[in-house]
Amino acid sequence: MHSELLAVPEFLRNLADLLRVDAGELVRKLLQVGFIWLVCWVGQRVVKQIARRIERAVDDGDDNTMTEREQRGRTTSQLLRSVGRVLLIALGILLTLNVFVDIKPILAGAGILGLAVSFGAQSLVKDVISGFFYLVEGQFAVGDVIEVAGKTGEVERMTLRVVMLRDLHGAVHMVPNGQITTVSNFTRKWSRAVVEVGVGYETDVDRALQVFQDEAVRFNRDAVWRARFDGEPEIAGVIGLDENAVTIRVLFRTQPGQQWAVAREFRRRIKSRLDLEHIEIPMPQRTIRIKTDVDDPSLGRRRGASSTQGVPAGQLPPASLTPPGDSHE
Are 83 and 45 in contact (CB under 8 A)? Predict the structure, then answer.
């Protein structure tokens, strides 16, 4: 142990000779460096504490919904953490260099070098500027579900350079801010659930509309689900006479991000209600004209006679695969 302690001053003297300073000066400089990084560490802790305070200040205690104020607060806290960490590390490096050498010439050279690099890093500058304006304008925030650059997902993190989206399958997409030209925000202020259900052509449409209206109002007033709505439901009516069904559309105005859960629950409820009311949700069916062969002695060959039968789609008899008029001698 004693020999190891004696080796420390020897190491400092060797390092001092290398840097052409005496041992006392070296120790003073190392203490300055330690103090600089201690201040940077304390600054980082302060930044994190401020970010946590921002998140607690905007938290309303409801985990089911996230208000616009909460989203802006979370976005601001994340940006404060990332920018604060970068600035403190950069400041620590510059002050450390300044302890050993005069950094004024370095800063002057860095300015010229930065100007040269900026021409080759235009995309990076574009990303940072775009990210700044997205944050200031509040076009989207952490927790929003958006579509940008052909990718759709929930915003997990925002920086001045990239937006990180997590899609339905769990994949994370990192989109540079400079590549974002159009933003589609599905959870801004309020959302809308659009549910379309088909009923059979033999159904009394007015009765079906009344059933949809009754079930939608009952769903809207359900004590468990009421907090997820942001208005009364709207029965848009018949929006299509399709090949196999009459399509009815129902609209629900919901709290941001709740439209998918509301749509799933209403589909479940309306299916049970239609079964109870004996209103059919039809399966695809098709009427097929099938040719059958009969003998024609005068012509010496078979001539096709047609008949019409209702056949469910996908169950076409093999005989019907013969094209019309295709006969064999």
Answer: no
**Distance between CA atoms of residues 112 and 115, nearest Å:** 5
Q: How far apart are alpha carbons 236 and 321 in whole angstroms?
A: 42
Three-state secondary structure call for residue 316: coil
- What is d(CA 89, CA 86) in angstroms, rounded to the nearest whole number? 5
Q: Rounded to the nearest 5°, which phi and psi values hold at 66?
A: -120, 115
Q: What interhelical angle do 205-220 and 259-276 show, nearest 10?
A: 130
What is the distance between the alpha carbons of residues 69 and 308, in angstroms, rounded to a whole number?
A: 64
β-strand pairing of 234-241 with 184-185: unpaired
Structure tokens at 162: 């990239």
- Nearest-angstrom CA–CA distance, 227 and 42: 43
| CA dihedral sign of residues 6, 7, 9, 10 | positive
Query: Is the entire prediction scored with pTM above 0.70?
Result: no
Q: How far are the Cα atoms of 46, 72, 299, 303 from residue 155, in angstroms, in the given order?
A: 26, 12, 75, 67
User: What secondary structure letter does DSSP report for 183?
Assistant: -
- For residue 203, with 0-12 CB atoms within 10 Å meaning exposed, 13-18 middle and 19 or more buried, which class applies? buried
pLDDT average, residue stretch 144-166: 90
Left (φ > 0), alpha (ψ -120 to 50) or beta: where does 151 sit? beta
Q: How far apart are CA 68 and CA 264, in angstroms?
A: 24
Q: What is the pLDDT of residues 51-60, one digit of tens each?
A: 888 878 777 7
